[in-house]
C-alpha cells in the first residue's frame, strides 16, 4: 500500500506540474488490439479485449518481483500504468482550459472535453457541474480506488473498461452491452464513495437527500445498464443549493465559471481526503 500511495502522489504531482504528459496517453495500441480480435463477438470479445492486457500487466509485475531492487522497479511500473490510466485527457488541464477560454464560444467548446462518450454538454451550471463530477470519477477517483485495491492491474482494467464502453469501437450489440455493464460495475463503488466525500466537502443534506431519492426511485439494477446516476443526482443537488443561495439575480446565481471553480476546489478537497485515508492505513500498518 505504501508503494501504491507513493506512486499515486508522484503521478498526481507530475500531472499537475507537467499536464503535457497527457499527450502520450493515447488509446491507439488498445484500439488496434480490439480491431485485431474483430473475428470474435459478444461477451467473448469484450473479455478477450480486457483480460489479455491485464494478464500481461500481472505477468510484468511477477517478473519485476524477481529482479533485484524489486520495490523500486515496482514503483516505476506502477507510476507508468497510473499515468496511462489517468487518461485519456488531463483532467485538471481540461478544467483550466475552460476557465481560461477567452469568450463564451471557446468556453462551450472547451467544456466538451469533459465527456468521453461524445454527448454534448449544455452551457449551464448544473450540466457542466454534472460533467465535472463524472470526469472526476472516471479520470481520477475511479482509477485511484481500483489502483489501491488491485494495484496497477486494477487501474489498467478500469481505464480499459471505460475506454471500450465509451470509445468509438465497432462492437456488436451484445459486446457493447457487456462492455457498458462492466464499466458501470467498476464505476459503482468509487461513485458511491465519491458521493459521500462530496457530501462531506460540500452540502451534506442536499447531497445525501438526492442520493437517497435516486435509489428510492431507481429500478433495481438499473445502474448496471445506465450507469451510476446517483452521482449525477448528487452533483446536481450540490450545485442547486449554491444557485438557490444567490442574491436573486439568475445571471449571478448560475454563473457557470464560478460553479466550476467551486467544484474544482471541492474535488481537490475530496482527493486530499481519499489520499489522507490511504496514508492513515499505511501508517497504521507500520505501527502494527
From TrEMBL:
One GO cellular component from the entry? plasma membrane
Q: Which PANTHER family match?
A: PROTEIN AMPE
Q: For this UniProt record, give its keywords in alphabetical order, as a comma-separated list.
A: Membrane, Transmembrane, Transmembrane helix
**Keyword set includes Membrane:** yes
Residues passing through the membrane, by range:
46-65, 72-91, 144-161, 181-202, 266-287
- Report the protein name in the record: Beta-lactamase induction protein
Natural source organism: Dyella soli
GO annotation terms (biological process): response to antibiotic
Lineage runs:
Bacteria, Pseudomonadati, Pseudomonadota, Gammaproteobacteria, Lysobacterales
Amino acid at each position: 500500500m505504501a508503494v501504491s500511495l507513493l506512486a499515486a502522489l508522484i503521478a498526481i504531482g507530475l500531472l499537475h506540474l507537467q499536464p503535457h504528459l497527457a499527450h502520450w496517453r493515447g488509446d491507439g495500441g488498445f484500439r488496434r488490439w480490439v480491431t485485431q480480435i474483430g473475428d470474435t463477438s459478444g461477451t467473448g470479445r469484450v473479455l478477450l479485449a480486457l483480460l489479455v492486457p491485464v494478464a500481461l500487466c500481472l505477468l510484468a509485475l511477477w517478473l519485476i518481483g524477481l529482479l533485484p531492487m524489486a520495490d523500486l522497479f515496482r514503483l516505476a511500473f506502477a507510476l507508468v500504468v497510473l499515468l496511462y490510466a489517468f487518461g485519456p485527457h488531463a483532467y485538471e488541464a481540461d478544467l483550466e482550459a475552460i476557465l481560461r477560454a477567452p469568450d463564451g464560444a471557446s468556453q462551450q467548446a472547451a467544456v466538451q472535453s469533459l465527456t468521453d462518450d461524445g454527448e454534448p454538454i449544455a452551457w449551464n451550471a448544473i450540466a457542466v457541474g454534472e460533467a465535472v463530477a463524472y470526469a472526476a470519477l472516471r479520470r481520477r477517483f475511479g482509477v485511484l480506488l481500483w489502483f489501491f485495491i488491485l494495484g496497477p492491474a486494477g487501474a489498467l482494467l478500469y481505464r480499459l473498461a471505460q475506454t471500450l464502453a465509451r470509445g468509438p469501437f465497432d462492437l456488436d450489440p451484445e459486446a457493447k452491452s457487456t462492455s457498458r455493464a462492466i464499466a458501470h460495475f467498476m464505476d459503482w463503488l468509487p461513485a458511491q464513495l465519491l458521493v459521500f466525500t462530496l457530501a462531506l466537502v460540500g452540502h451534506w443534506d442536499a447531497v445525501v437527500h438526492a442520493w437517497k431519492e435516486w435509489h428510492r426511485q431507481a429500478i433495481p439494477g438499473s445502474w448496471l445498464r445506465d450507469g451510476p446516476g446517483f452521482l449525477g443526482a448528487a452533483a446536481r443537488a450540490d450545485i442547486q443549493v449554491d444557485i438557490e443561495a444567490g442574491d436573486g439575480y439568475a445571471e449571478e446565481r448560475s454563473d457557470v465559471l464560478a460553479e466550476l471553480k467551486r467544484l474544482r476546489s471541492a474535488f481537490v478537497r475530496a482527493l486530499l481526503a481519499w489520499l489522507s485515508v490511504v496514508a492513515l492505513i499505511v501508517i497504521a500498518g507500520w505501527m502494527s
